[in-house]
Design a protein that fits this description.
Elements lengths: L2 H14 L3 E2 L24 H5 L8 E9 L1 E2 L2 E2 L13 E10 L4 H15 L7 E6 L11 H8 L7 E4 L1 H4 E3 L4 E12 L3 H6 L13 E14 L5 E14 H8 L12 H11 L7 H22 L8 H20 L11 H7 L6 H4 L1 H32 L4 E2 L1 H11 L3 H10 L3 E2 L1 H18 L2 E3 L3 E2 L7 E2 L6 E4 L1 E9 L2 E8 L1 E2 L13 E5 L2 E11 L2 E6 L10 E5 L1 H25 L5 E6 L4 E6 L6 H16 L5 E7 H6 L13 E7 L4 E4 L14 E10 L2 E8 H21 L6 H37 L1 E3 L2 E10 L2 H14 L3 E9 L2 E8 L1 H7 L3 H9 L5 E4 L3 E5 L6 H15 L7
Parallel strand pairs: 1-2, 6-7, 12-13, 16-20, 33-34
Antiparallel strand pairs: 2-5, 3-4, 5-11, 6-9, 8-9, 9-10, 10-11, 14-18, 15-18, 17-24, 18-19, 19-23, 21-22, 21-24, 22-23, 25-26, 26-31, 27-28, 28-29, 30-31, 32-33, 34-35, 35-37, 36-37
Helix pairs in contact: 3-4, 8-9, 9-10, 9-13, 10-13, 14-16, 17-18, 21-22
Bound molecules: adenosine-5'-triphosphate and magnesium ion.
The site of adenosine-5'-triphosphate has 15 residues, from strand 5, strand 10, strand 11 and helix 7.
């Protein structure tokens, strides 16, 4: 059975049991401060478990793209070394939201595995929660009895709280779980050690394939468990592991999920898979990581220096490094794998096919720059090697390599070994821990428990139609963010827009009696709308008046609608490869990131502005449609944004059906005329293949133009109101250039004249050309030039010039090298001594030095003193 068929059968099976099949949520998570990437199938249904939202459909099944590389689940370092953990994998899942519970969940799992897939029953093991005294929880006897109907009692095993009690986080929904494990070892090995002893022991062929979680408790922040009124089922089966079992393989990588990719790699590297453990691991790492990287980029998460972007960058670098070190790939190679992957997932996850060129381009740029870094890092290691006292690279140095060059410890260790060195690994870990502690401290946000004020069903946003409302506090909690205390409020209905889709959250006021509470910001947590306030209503049970700051909201709307018009204009001017990659819409400015590979020309920018402004002047009325089925929205030609978690129904924002149709949850102007005017302020690059435009609209655009106009007028006046400004400025510059040249000529002549005069003053004594004189010169440069020229023209020169440089005193001392040697002269020392006479200081080399000063009247004294000192230093018989 192929992987494609296996996935299909899972979905069909649960469809036949009354489940609705839904698409995978994006792997990159938005609007959840606790999670960067989807790490389990249940993530997108969190709100149902938390009771924030009621499930419209009680039974759901899907395949979910998961990524386990950060936070609670981090399998990254295992990946490739073992054969059954991936970074990105598919989790097949079925859910009951307050509908069926343990009996159906267990019986259906058994039916699917043994009757549909026909896995051998005698190779399966089930685990159940064995109870926990400290929590006063007893064994999950219900699950035990249900499994015992299918399996002999010695293959239903008790599990610990660690393995068999699932929790979403420190607080929240939780409950016992049952896992299914499969033994894929050969008969001979099974005869030696029975499978029941291998379960949960980390053997690569005795692995967990399915976890069935029975959510029946809620853990509150004092640590205690409360029974939930509605009980839920949440299951997750590792698709790649299931395929391994069904295709009779001993490694996930031997299945048709990974073999196509491994075949390409093996061909490129000229190494067969299976030849050598090291090259095998490299091929596994790369064939795994390319999936994580490509899907993350497709979901809108570009590699970068921070947060989720940094996680993706590190995965990419791990793949490049394995290719570089073990498969000898010195040139970018990862990007060439993207087409293989997008073909493989064509019918399942279409987001890859649609963006494959973009994904490949981004990966190529990243690889190229990392290979350069790798090169630099290797050179750095060379330097470290030279300066090393002993044979050990210190923890601090290893950490520097990790932190600045992206060299993980194992790479540094490997290179060290190749060079006959060792690494202080414990020292490295200490540095690492210190950094972690530092970042933990800086990001510590602690939240208290929600205090429920009022039971309320409808927690709605009514701010599309209203900017004011009477509302009731549903719940609140206190939070502490970097030492400052704030409160979060949830209202039963609210006109406040919560930050999302790039649009900033509304600010405004809550009026409770005569108490006025400022709303500092509005954000979403999952689907809850949270108002950030600095104080609580004195009586939270009273209704209050919620008022959005209308002016700010309006400016934000101008910018949001302008973003849509801009997006459409960009596609007209640059082409339909332009896709939104991010945006920020605030009252002050709009920022729009989009895929495009070249810097925009001035003409392109002007054209985009012109189209957008024309659409603004057309005063196109907003056409807003809520609750449009997604299929219909796509038919309308709506441009879907990435990464938003859309339900079955979406909101479609249209400004002229032939111009701009977008899926969007933001707030917009009633008609485009309100935007007034758009002006692009900058166009720049943010990442490989992604450009950024910043623009202003309405009042802001107007003030910008006025400011520029005023500046222009000022300049016109300065230039005496020429007809043609550009010509006038060009003329001015030309004139300046001519004058500068002329001036240089005069200066040259002047200093030539000075030189001729000076040559007459040179005294030849004891075969030394002695020159001590006062001169006047236009600038310091000429003084220096003059000194050098004289040195070239005269033999054995000893010279001190006391110069009046445009009213400022300077001294230059120049000695021929022969004198420096013979008499031990030092121009630097002498000039410092002489500079005292002009209240200044300076220095230089033994043969040439200069000094500047304040007192122009000291120049004659400089001459006098110089004559004196030189006579002594040179043992001159006379100065006559
Ligand atoms: P394991 O102990 O093997 O790491 P887990 O306890 O972390 O598994 P769950 O969190 O229960 O796994 O996830 C549900 C299922 O998803 C597992 O039964 C397994 O089949 C699959 N799974 C979990 N982690 C991975 C991974 N990194 N790669 C591939 N499949 C995985
Ligand atoms: Mg795990």
């Amino acid at each position: 059975m192929t992987a494609v068929e296996i996935r299909q059968q899972f979905l069909q099976f649960f469809e036949s049991k009354g489940h609705k099949i839904v698409p995978s949520a994006p792997m990159v998570v938005q609007n959840d401060p606790t999670l960067m990437f989807t790490n389990a199938g249940m993530n997108q249904f969190k709100d149902y478990f938390l009771g924030n939202k009621e499930a419209q459909v009680k039974r759901i099944a899907d395949t979910q793209k998961c990524l386990r590389v950060s936070g609670k689940h981090n399998d990254l370092e295992e990946v490739g070394l073992d054969t059954y953990h991936h970074t990105m994998f598919e989790m097949l899942g079925n859910w009951s939201f307050g509908d069926y519970f343990k009996k159906d969940a267990i019986n259906w799992a058994w039916e699917l595995l043994t009757e549909v897939y026909k896995l051998p029953k005698d190779r399966l093991y089930a685990t159940v929660f064995g109870g926990d005294e400290s929590e006063s929880l007893e064994k999950d006897n219900e699950a035990f009895d249900l499994w015992s109907a299918h399996l002999p009692a010695d293959r239903v095993l008790d599990g610990s709280k660690k393995d068999n009690f699932w929790e979403m986080g420190d607080t929240g929904p939780c409950g016992p779980c049952s896992e299914l494990h499969i033994d894929l070892r050969d008969e001979a090995e099974i005869a030696k050690v029975p499978g029941r002893e291998m379960v949960n022991m980390g053997h690569p062929q005795v692995v967990e394939i399915w976890n069935l979680v029975f959510i029946q408790f809620n853990r509150v922040s004092d640590g205690s468990l409360k029974s939930l009124p509605a009980k839920h089922v949440d299951t997750g089966m590792g698709f790649e592991r299931l395929v391994m079992a069904l295709q009779g393989k001993k490694s996930n990588y031997d299945t048709d999920v990974f073999q196509p990719m491994i075949a390409v790699l093996s061909e490129k590297a000229g190494v067969a898979y299976g030849d050598d453990e090291k090259t095998d691991i490299a091929m596994r790492v790369i064939s795994d990581h390319i999936r994580a990287i490509s899907f993350a980029i497709a979901d809108g998460q570009l590699p970068s220096n921070v947060k989720a972007g940094y996680v993706i960058r590190r995965i990419l670098r791990r793949a490049v490094r394995y290719g570089y070190t073990f498969l000898k790939f010195n040139e970018p190679f990862l990007h060439t794998l993207v087409p293989v992957l997008s073909d493989q997932f064509a019918g399942v996850f279409p987001e890859l096919v649609g963006q494959k060129d973009f994904i490949a381009k981004v990966i190529f740029e990243e690889e190229t720059s990392f290979l350069r870094t790798l090169d630099k890092g290797l050179k750095r290691i060379e330097v470290i090697k030279q300066s090393l006292k002993g044979k050990e690279i210190s923890g601090a140095v290893a950490f520097e390599l990790y932190d600045t060059y992206g060299f993980p410890l194992d790479l540094t260790a490997l290179i060290a070994r190749e060079n006959g060195l060792t690494v202080d690994e414990a020292g490295f870990q200490t540095e690492m821990q210190q950094q972690k502690d530092r970042s933990k401290k800086s990001s510590k946000v602690s939240t208290g428990d929600w205090v429920e004020v009022k039971q309320e069903e409808e927690l709605g946003f009514i701010g599309y139609d209203n900017l004011e409302a009477v509302a009731q506090v549903v719940k609140y909690r206190e939070i502490e963010d970097k030492g400052s205390k704030l409160f979060q409020l949830v209202l039963d209905n609210t006109p406040f827009y919560a930050e999302s889709g790039g649009q900033v959250g509304d600010k405004g006021m809550l009026m409770s009696g005569d108490q006025k509470i400022k709303v500092l910001d509005t954000k979403k947590e999952n689907d809850l709308i949270i108002h950030f306030v600095s104080e609580l209503p004195k009586d939270p049970t009273l209704p209050l008046q919620a008022k959005v700051d209308i002016y700010k909201r309006q400016l934000t709307e101008n910018n949001h609608s302008a973003t849509h018009l801009l997006h459409a204009a960009l596609r007209q001017v640059l082409g339909t490869h332009v896709q939104q990659k991010g945006s920020l819409v605030s009252p002050d400015v709009l920022r729009f990131d989009f895929s495009h590979f070249a810097k925009m020309t001035d003409e392109e920018i002007r054209e985009v502005e012109a189209i957008t402004n024309k659409k603004i002047r057309e005063n196109i009325a907003l056409n807003e449609r809520r609750n449009v089925p997604i299929a219909e929205a796509k038919q309308l030609g709506a441009m879907a944004l990435f990464g938003e978690k859309y339900g079955e129904f979406v909101r479609v924002i249209t400004f002229d059906p032939h111009y701009s149709v977008e899926l969007c949850g933001g707030t917009h102007v009633r008609a485009t005329g309100q935007i007034g005017f758009l002006k692009i302020v900058s166009e720049s690059s943010v990442a490989a293949g992604v450009r950024r435009i910043e623009a202003v609209t309405a009042d802001k655009a107007e003030s910008l133009v006025i400011e520029q106009d005023m500046l222009m007028n000022e300049m016109k006046e300065l230039l005496k109101n020429p007809k043609d400004m550009a010509k006038a400025v060009a003329q001015l510059l030309e004139e300046k250039q001519t004058l500068t040249k002329e001036l240089e000529g005069y200066r040259l002549k002047a200093s030539q004249g000075v030189k001729q005069d000076l040559l007459k003053e040179v005294k030849a004594i004891d075969a030394i050309s002695l020159l001590v004189a006062e001169v006047a010169l236009p600038d310091a440069d000429s003084l220096k030039k003059l000194a050098y020229e004289l040195r070239n023209e005269l033999s054995s020169l000893a010279m001190v010039l006391a110069a009046n440089i445009d009213g400022k005193p300077q001294v230059a001392v120049m000695f021929d090298d022969s004198l420096v040697e013979k008499f031990g002269l030092n121009a630097g020392l002498l000039v410092r001594d002489l500079a005292r006479e002009i209240q200044g200081g300076g220095g230089g080399q033994p043969f040439f030095a200069t000094a500047g000063g304040k007192d122009i009247n000291g120049l004659p004294k400089v001459v006098e003193k110089a004559n004196d000192l030189l006579a002594k230093a040179l043992n001159l018989s006379s100065l006559a």
